[in-house]
Known about the structure:
With about 240 residues, chain A is α/β, with parallel strands linked by helices. Chain A has twelve helices and eight strands. Chain B has helices at about 5-10, 35-45, 45-55, 65-70, 85-90, 110-120, 135-145, 160-165, 165-175, 185-195, 205-215, 230-250, 265-275, 290-295, 335-345, 355-370, 375-395, 410-420, and strands at about 10-15, 60, 80, 95-100, 125-130, 150-155, 175-180, 220, 255-260, 280-285, 295-300, 310-315, 335, 350-355, 400-405. In chain B, helix 7 packs parallel to helix 9 (about 165-175) and helix 12 (about 230-250) packs across helix 13. The model of chain B has no long low-confidence stretch (mean pLDDT about 95).
Amino acid sequence: MSKMLVSYATLGYPKENEYLEFIDGCVKGGSDILEIGVPPKYAKYDGPVIRRSYKQVSSWLKDIWPLLKETRDRVKIPIIILTYLEDWLPVLDDFLSNLAKIGIDGILFPDLIIDYVDDYEKYVKKIKDHGLKAVIFTAPSVPDPMIQRVSKISDIFLYYGVRPTTGVPIPVSVDSLITRIRILVDNKLVVGFGLSDVEDMRKALRAGADGIAIGTAYIEAIEKGGVQEAINLVKYFRGVLNEF
Amino acid sequence: MAIEREEILPKYWYNIIPDLPKPLPPPRDPPDAEFSRIDLLRKIMPKEVLRQQFTVERFIKIPEEVREAYLNIGRPTPLMRAKRLEEMLNTPAKIYFKFEGATPTGSHKINTALPQAYFAKAEGVNHVVTETGAGQWGTAVALAARMYNMESTIFMVKVSYEQKPQRRTIMELYGGKVYASPTNLTEYGKKVLAENPSHPGSLGVAMSEAIEYALTNNYRYLVGSVLDVAILHQSVIGQEAMKQLDILGEEPDILIGCVGGGSNFGGFAFPFLGAKRGEKFIAVGSYEIPKFSQGDYMYDFPDSAGLLPMVKMITLGKDYVPPPIYAGGLRYHGAAPSLSLLIKEGIVEWREYSEPEIFEAARLFAEAQGIVPAPESAHAIKAVIDEALKAKKNHERKVIVFNLSGHGLLDLPNYESMMKRLLK
């Protein structure tokens, strides 16, 4: 099976029409899965670029649901919602049932097993009870036995963020980090956080990653040259993944 | 058969993060940050040091050049039995200590200063900057910088600068430039002085000044504790101690260390924890800087200006200023995230002792073993004595191992101050 390209978009970024154009381009460009970021109050593990995109969208997007539904209706590949559990705790059941109702496939809470580790199983069950897939986020700061445990219950794939925050090119040895956990992961392994450097990407794939998640690079491309430039990047990354 | 020093000195550093009971909350940028602290790290720290901070693997190879440098400063440090202390306490317990005071700088701090300086030099850095409280870290950085032919600038907490002229002399002898923080050399220092011209300084303030100074001049900052990479490097202590105990055929029951930011404790205890050896781990802090009993476990800045990313730790707050008259050390406002997590999980116990208690312990230890301990290490000694007396009461032949993190030969003004205030 070919390697998975997981493309991230901030819901509504930069404006509604361009956002829709971009997600269409993500699909046409060869993405296997679409990750949609719902602007949080505190983007704990996001770098300046994605934070900037949230800020811009928050200035005009007051109701996320019509746009999420529109996203679902035009995209056939699986859609995963990415947002922080912290924000939705008070209304979690409503939030999850609304997502399920409009046909979203799954959800990824980056803070689930870091800030809510004592209750994570309860939340995973809740997500699944609502008929949604629970994609679990892990990082090098998660101990080995726990990576092994959650890899078995994560749906679709296990997400592994190799840097402490999105988009910031902190020097890390991507291959060493993947080698450490590859044998523990009983699932598809998707690697993200600062992987827009194609050499890093190749290293990750050679070390055993089943897919790559990309976000910041698209937003930077949109900032720099508009949506078409970001769509070109999707195609380019697809090409790199197809080498494997 | 004699065992070669080279065989006891480990070939790898050990990182406990893959073996922690729970995920370690990662460093992060504050909400609505006007700039990314995580991004700023790339301008502050040597690249390889930063890579080691975030490339979390259980074992990381120690470069051969760094092992040679470790051997050159006398590693492995001795593991000694405190037989006379046992006799004086009349305890059935056996007491061993790893003597980190045996390095040229007199403390464990050199264990991370050397690799950080080595990596900085390899990247073409020619000037490193840091902060220091008591002067142990500053001395280690000044020596490490000299060994790799780099300049060093050290921001020393003002009260210590005034009370510890000898530490300053050593740093200057090694070629370091030493300033009393808060200074007028940085914007943050000026701000602190504008608010309070007689501010005694704190490690948090000196840290911020060192980072700002490094940034402005495009130098690099070396980190003495708290961050995982410093504890990683310190793991040579515990790994050596394990081998040395093996040679003696001893199995440790109780492991004890003092905690400023947590690097000597982590370096000593974490390899034992990872190898599941030892039944009880005790981290000892100061009653006067009560982070364990009164601190909160939360995200906070390691430095007062908030230039470093927030980390989740037990903390008294980044703006905490320790009581100026207190001479016992361990003044840092927080404890390393990994150690904080282990304490919160109940795997490591904590104790806090007051200045009179640690002073008595230091006196007893000096009398028994002849070594003048650093006031910091005297906190660990006090816990050792208490555990040894408990073993006596319960008729248990416990093996107690502690880390004597430094000697106190340059802390005599502290002891003088304690003698004046505490001896009637």
